[in-house]
Amino acid sequence: MSNRQENYATYNYCVSFIDLLGQREALHGQGLLPVLNTDADREAFLTIIRESIGAIIRLQRDAETMVKRVIEPDPNSPFRSTLSDEERVTWDAMQFTRLTTQRWSDGLVSFVSLGDRDIKCLMNGIYSIFCLSGTLCFLGLTRGKPVRGAIDVAWGMELHVGELYGPAVVRAYELESEVAQYPRIVVSSRTIQFLQACSRNTDTDPFSRFNRALADLCLKMLIPDADGSWTLHYLGESFRWSVTQDNHVVLYNEAYAFVMAQLRKHQDSGNSKLAFRYSHLMGYFYEHPPPTEEQSSSRPR
């Protein structure tokens, strides 16, 4: 028996847990591979695959595309081109982050370490998780493949590269499965407290100022829900200005149409639980319509 002391590298992490909804219904009645004797048999089975596995693949691809944009910022961006060589070094250090996404059956776990000493602006990773989670939720509605999720901050460790274990994952999963309940992204009180602490930091170096600005922006992307939970406000002004931009109105209209169709479907079928949840989601869309042309050109305060 070895007496060697293991070196467990534990850090605090910000984690999002995203779950693709509707998979139980899509796979209802499935067991062993069916016997496919006719073209109709094969087409019916392909339809099941498209509605289940196909939706998961699309979710994973969406996440990969967005994560790539985060970890590989455009070196030829108009703003960066206006900077001096020295300023570019600082700017690149501000932008650098390590956002990892771990596939989890019909969901995704995305995380950033808050103890990574190579990262000058830790808030950049948390901001990226906010943007990723909110976009996946919004896109899911537009495509008729809704997701729900949660964001939390807690300690964890990577047992293997890209595989996070510990309370950070457990807490995010609990929030997603027990609190979120329908298409929304719930943000824990612990995450909000972390953002508030970053926002109160009075250091004046460039990295601290950037961290503070991102913390303030993340706080503006939150909205309280009727059950007392804080959720990502993907229909809000700050999210629109930072993330959806010119695509916001189109995304809104497509998502609105899906939510309305789901509400009517569950009302007609007598599914009171889902009808109530989509009624609540419909209320969120009613309360936060797209901006007018004049409003869309105004930067949020």
Please specify the SSE layout and strand pairing:
Blueprint: E1 11-20, H1 23-26, H2 39-71, H3 78-81, H4 85-95, E2 100-104, E3 107-113, H5 123-142, E4 147-160, E5 163-165, H6 167-180, E6 185-187, H7 189-199, H8 206-220, E7 222-224, E8 230-232, H9 237-244, H10 248-269, H11 272-287, H12 293-296
Could you explain the architecture of this structure?
- The longest helix is centred in the N-terminal third of the chain and has 33 residues, at 39-71.
- A hairpin with a 5-residue loop joins strand 7 (222-224) and strand 8 (230-232).
- The protein has a single domain, classed as 2-Layer Sandwich (Alpha-Beta Plaits), CATH 3.30.70.1230.
- The chain has helices at 23-26, 39-71, 78-81, 85-95, 123-142, 167-180, 189-199, 206-220, 237-244, 248-269, 272-287, 293-296; strands at residues 11-20, 100-104, 107-113, 147-160, 163-165, 185-187, 222-224, 230-232.
- The protein is globular, with a radius of gyration of 21 Å.
- It has 301 residues and is of the alpha+beta class.
- It starts with 10 loop residues before the first strand and ends in a 5-residue tail after the last helix.
- Strands 1, 2, 3, 4, 5, 6, 7 and 8 form an 8-stranded mixed sheet that branches.
Helical content band: 40-55%
Q: Specify the overall morphology.
A: globular
Q: What is Rg?
A: 21 Å
Can you count the beta strands?
A: 8
CATH homologous superfamily (4th level) name: Nucleotide cyclase, GGDEF domain
Query: Which CATH C-level class is it?
Result: Alpha Beta
CATH topology (level 3) name: Alpha-Beta Plaits
Low-pLDDT residue intervals, each spanning 5 or more residues: 1-5
List the domain count as a whole number: 1
How many helices does DSSP assign?
12
Largest sheet: 8 strands, mixed
Instruction: Give the ordered list of helices and strands.
Output: EHHHHEEHEEHEHHEEHHHH
Strand proportion, as a percent range, falls in 15-25%
Helix-strand makeup class: alpha+beta
Please report the distance between the alpha carbons of the first and last residues: 62 Å
**Which second-level CATH architecture applies?**
2-Layer Sandwich
Overall pLDDT score = 85
